[in-house]
């Protein structure tokens, strides 16, 4: 057991964890690996429990007095012991457990400091490097596991107040003044401080006594100020974590992807009163459904898992036919020959083209693939440019499939023009993020694009300001990263450093991009006048920003859903956070603003230890927390929108279950003279 000083020194070294949302390479493409289990993350708020765990020397096979040997293989731990642990099977004195189960405990409890202080980091890395020299085939597999050990976290300089982007942003103020992102109050209105109250705006619109330009500005100001509140109209519960959820372009449809490999669809033609529509699933999925995209006519849904096949399913509830397999692993021009394609890469992101004929995908193979739905084969595979996983893709224009955007863990946002792809190179590059990108969203005008990054910033880009490919080839994007792991570590302010080649227009800060690939979006023109950008956050909120980087409002999903379902007996088995006390936690992974109404749906990892998921419906209510309508707001429903009375009863009586600790009371005694002692 290392000393306190050595543990403190180890805290400055990189923390590596072998578990992430990856697809293990199969020996046989036809054999599916169903034992895949990424390790679960830890909480930065559990330091007291971590220290206590170290003091008590949690039994991990390395504590003093235990006669055990611990051997690490590529994907499992082998424990040898005289007596098998209770509840585990013994085979010749050897007990095998998945390596991910050990490392999920290490990442969450602080015991990684013990390993580093005993030389496991360097020794393991050296062993991996020795394996590279011996066997090139093993090198490809071992490189994944050893990459985290080789990477060294670059220490940042001391935080300076001027190193963060200026708020409000001067360029953002100019954009708002130009009218492309919302409408500013007229200078006369600001000078006289009039028409700021919703009721007043509504009155002037009804009267219609002003000129057309003034009435138009009043109408726009009226809609763009209706930011949904934190109070949840409905809380839809899922028994597994929810990963993404989006309204259709016309607002009549909503889908939600969950970790149980199902996509639920809802009729939202009335945005305040949803109806369950249909459920489709992904057979033999890996870890979760990563993404889904709806065709422009709402007739088909394409959804993916961490495999090279996506599924195309009809949305018609009367059509129960099997979904069509779309194999993205085929070389362009080659037809699918067998029932399953290669499983050596996964699909992280999907998007339909504006004409509904193609689907673009970003993959763990560091590639961007365009799939033609008519010929059922890929027509374009962009490889060798991105140096890491492509987490997000989208089309740049809703009416044209020529411009593509792709965001990667190599910290770059690439722009591809399919009309000039002879050399297979991108048309340009956006640089400015210092960590990997988690999501990319296009405004749909062929000019502006938005991205979320693991450096805890969201950035707005202008296509006219991208970096040329020739200039980018002289820049090393890896020199700006810290090497931190967003899934299990916090991101302190001193990690942030302005990028030398930042070509973004506006940078937004305040939300947290941790634990998972959190998504960001432009607000719709109909219900918000394109005034805002918004994003989910690891702290359980949706952050809504003005274009000048100032905060317009927050939607607190965590507070709206706290204790909204009972704690299941086996919650620890599905929890994402392995902490000493299983607390209710919320991480908003995705959010979608209704295109025609002041309504927002937030899709979250939500529950005890982030073990379950929710989709919550939030509407603008002029700041009022309650509602007199029936049914009352804030009630719980299952995935088919059936009321769950036991969940509602549990929440209503949550305050009765709070245990109050008694404190020692100082008793006073008096002697015969009346003096207290």
Which features does this protein show?
single chain, 677 residues, alpha+beta, Methylamine Dehydrogenase, Chain H, five-stranded mixed β-sheet, four-stranded antiparallel β-sheet, 15 helices, 32 strands, disordered N terminus
CATH class of the largest domain: Mainly Beta
Distance between the termini: 48 Å
Secondary structure class reads alpha+beta
Poorly predicted runs are 1-77, 79-85, 87-91, 107-152, 659-672
The CATH homologous superfamily name of the largest domain equals YVTN repeat-like/Quinoprotein amine dehydrogenase
- The counted number of beta strands is 32
Percent strand equals 25-35%
Biggest sheet statistics? 5 strands, mixed
Kindly report the average pLDDT value: 78
Spatial extent as radius of gyration: 27 Å
Question: In which order are the strands of the major sheet placed?
Answer: 29-30-31-4-32
Q: At CATH's second level, what is the architecture of the largest domain?
A: 7 Propeller
What is the approximate shape? globular
Helix content: 10-25%
What name does the CATH topology of the largest domain carry? Methylamine Dehydrogenase, Chain H
Number of helices: 15
Q: What is the total domain count?
A: 2
What is the multimeric organization of the chains shown?
single chain
